[in-house]
Write a structure and sequence with these properties.
The protein is an alpha+beta fold and 220 residues long. The protein has one domain: Beta Polymerase, domain 2. It is built from seven helices and five strands; from the N terminus they run ααβααβαβββαα. It has a five-stranded mixed sheet with strand order 1-2-5-4-3. The longest helix has 36 residues. The radius of gyration is 20 Å and the shape is flat.
Length: 220
């Protein structure tokens, strides 16, 4: 599986301070568990439900703005224990069904604690956004003590969902765009079309897998 790195600037080092190593540790611990799970599944002849993985530490400026929007103190304590997305991992799946397979595998990690889950795949946001969100924590190995949990936000989505979300994110922060209402409507239409395509691809896959099973000789 792929080795991941994530960028951290001096701004993040100053904002998160000594907690930065814990955030990075949470990401590394989770990625290590998922890598082992994925490898083991493949060794058993099963499909790897994850096509690619991304990880990040939330930028200091972005975190400050979020805390201000939510009326929270702009402190590292708020960042770690009030909004839960200082550390994040995104898991990209080829098919919709594999989103739920991946979420189930995550719940089964020994020692994992799930704070909350939100299914924006079955219940998309009004703007068309689709993804499966989880907030989890894992015990960090080799630490003498861990007084408070280090939360990790997980986003699980298909390749198509991720493409749409990336474009929507870029456009959302552009100022003074003409025809803003039309753009929002078009983005929503594109999101619905992408969801329909995802379901069609899922159906095609199931048809192919069904025909392959029928072709197996008796006794297999």
């Amino acid at each position: 599986m792929e080795a991941l790195t994530w960028s951290v600037t001096q701004a993040e080092r100053e904002f998160y301070g000594e907690h930065l190593v814990l955030l990075e540790g949470a990401i590394s611990e989770f990625l290590s568990c998922m890598d082992m799970i994925r490898r083991y599944r493949v060794s058993l002849g099963k499909d790897d439900p994850v096509a690619s993985v991304q990880a990040r530490i939330k930028g200091a400026d972005s975190m400050r703005q979020k805390l201000k929007r939510q009326g929270l103190p702009v402190t590292v304590d708020s960042a770690l224990h009030k909004v839960w997305d200082a550390a994040g991992v995104r898991l990209i799946c080829p098919f919709v069904s594999e989103i739920y397979t991946t979420a189930s595998l995550i719940r089964g990690i020994p020692g994992i604690r799930v704070l909350r889950e939100k299914d924006y795949v079955r219940f998309p946001k009004p703007n068309g956004y689709r993804s499966y969100h989880m907030v989890v924590c894992l015990p960090l190995r080799f630490l003498e003590r861990q007084q408070q949990p280090v939360w990790l936000e997980l986003q699980i989505r298909t390749i198509a969902m991720d493409c749409w979300a990336s474009i929507e994110h870029q456009l959302k922060y552009k100022k003074d765009i003409p025809n803003q209402k039309l753009i929002v409507q078009e983005l929503k239409r594109c999101a619905d079309e992408i969801a329909s395509t995802d379901l069609s691809l899922q159906t095609i896959r199931e048809l192919i897998e069904g025909s392959e099973r029928e072709e197996l000789p008796c006794g297999f």
